[in-house]
Specification:
The protein has about 160 residues and is an all-alpha fold. The chain has helices at about 1-20, 40-60, 80-95, 95-115, 125-155. The radius of gyration is 20 Å and the shape is flat.
Length: about 160
């Protein structure tokens, strides 16, 4: 289970960056809202949770069931990881609404295809319409929920479309 061990180490490094790095402003410009409104507090909390999960993953990577062979390390880029990287790079330029809708659409279609034990190449043409309708409706509902909870209830300012300026 070398992959779990390597992933755990990488998660600890990422969490150290989140906890100790200066990646956001540490003071709220308006001075309102108190300690929990600051974005650095939430990033540091995520970093602490991430290190806890990483330690659990590392500990589990040493456990081996009887009769189970040890696995070596092998690196591969899953399409979900690539999609998340593209999402993170596109979010500041394209904005929250468009990138989040497209990401949700992709993930709903991807997991619907995997749920039926298919791949994108083996999906029958008749099924694509149903997948697209399911994906668009699910992505629209998820985007509306994200917008309502974070944009309206919590007053989070989302990245907007800034591709041309």
């Amino acid at each position: 289970k070398m992959n779990d061990f390597v992933l755990g180490i990488l998660m600890i490094l990422l969490s150290a960056f989140l906890v100790f790095g200066k990646i956001t402003e540490t003071e709220v410009k308006t001075g309102q809202g108190g300690f929990l409104v600051r974005s650095d507090v939430w990033l540091r909390m995520m970093g602490v949770f991430l290190v806890i999960v990483a330690v659990i993953l590392i500990i589990r990577s040493f456990g081996k069931k009887e009769g189970e062979e040890a696995e070596g390390f092998h690196f591969y880029l899953d399409s979900t990881v690539v999609a998340l990287i593209v999402y993170a790079l596109a979010l500041p330029k394209v904005g929250f609404m468009i990138t989040t809708f497209l990401m949700c659409l992709y993930l709903v279609i991807l997991f619907s295809v995997k749920e039926q034990s298919l791949t994108f190449r083996t999906v029958p043409k008749a099924l694509w319409g149903k997948l697209l309708v399911k994906g668009v409706l699910s992505a629209a509902v998820m985007l509306a929920v994200f917008w309502f909870i974070f944009g309206k209830l919590l007053s989070v300012q989302f990245p907007t479309f800034s591709l041309f300026g």
